[in-house]
Amino acid sequence: MTGHKEIFETLRREILSGKFDAEKKLPSENTLAHRFGVSRPTISRVTLDLKREGLIITRKGAPSTITKFALNATGTLALVVPGESYAEIFRPLEMRLKKLAERAGWDLIHERIKSTDPLVRAREVRRLAYRLSREHVTGVILQPIEFIKDAPKANEETVRYFDEAGITVVLLDYDFVSFPGRSRYDVVGIDNFAAGFTIADHLLKTGSGRIAYLHRPCAAPTVTDRMRGVASAVIEAGLPWSLAENVLRAEPTNRRAVAKFIRRFNPDTFIAGNDIAAVELGETLRRMGNGAENIKLAGFDDVEAAEKAGITTMRQPLDDIALVAIQTMISRIREPGMPIRTTLLPASLVIRR
Known about the structure:
Elements: H1 4-16, H2 29-36, H3 40-52, E1 56-59, E2 62-66, H4 68-72, E3 76-80, H5 90-103, E4 107-110, H6 118-132, E5 139-142, H7 151-164, E6 168-172, E7 186-190, H8 192-205, E8 211-214, H9 221-236, H10 243-246, E9 247-248, H11 255-265, E10 269-272, H12 275-288, E11 296-298, H13 304-309, E12 313-315, H14 318-334, E13 342-345, E14 348-350
Parallel strand pairs: 3-4, 3-5, 5-6, 6-7, 7-13, 8-9, 8-10, 10-11
Antiparallel strand pairs: 1-2, 12-14
Helix pairs in contact: 1-3, 2-3, 5-14, 6-7, 8-9
């Protein structure tokens, strides 16, 4: 006998695939009970769940009708993540997003953006956006472009393709408009300010006294938010903080810039904007020698490279991010007029060394 869950999944897939578009009505409960070989109360439970999903409208004494949301949905979402070519964290997140989308009855298409050159990557994203806008996907989960000087403009050009095609966009990881500004899209990520405060507070309580922050040029607004959290923890500890003194704006591989900063500020701890930058900075410090290799390092994301290097970090809640991103997308498709939302989830401290 077919169970309630299996019937629900079958009907949801059929509704989203357009099987009932012509009549815009679901078969009667008696018809469905006969089709699946179950009792009418079982079908009534399925009908109630379909209604809760926003797929049908029920009326007493009349057949259930397919909602506008269900009729307009193609059942296909797209994932656009330029960061996958340089950030380890996005691969496991992509797998979670795909699994959850399929469980919710949606296909998730994804084409990898492979270039390590930021400018080439930005062009690839825009080309992909143009193509997706003509493939009639329902929604796009987009991680914005970063590491180029005109990143906000490049991101606006990208989302314009989706807007003109009526495609729903949910931003992953961060908004491409810097604080205090705000874009017109939902955003799902972590609370980067809190993450920065948490890791700095831990380091201060375990002996760090001169904390520096490595901020890569043209990095995403999340990196700045993390820096603000670090600064807040340092100031609350009664220590001085200034952008001129505590922040190194350079690539972690720029040995000359790193050496000059260390001579001037003499930090005992470096917090980098992410784990990869922290690992690369560690290699630079080891090559410099003369005690630089003893500077404590910390980062964000908890990727494999950080674990191997023994770096204290902040772990992103990938399962929760994926779940909220999919839920946000589906609810935005269902109710496009609802207020714009930013969902920032808590990261957790991972202590090493």
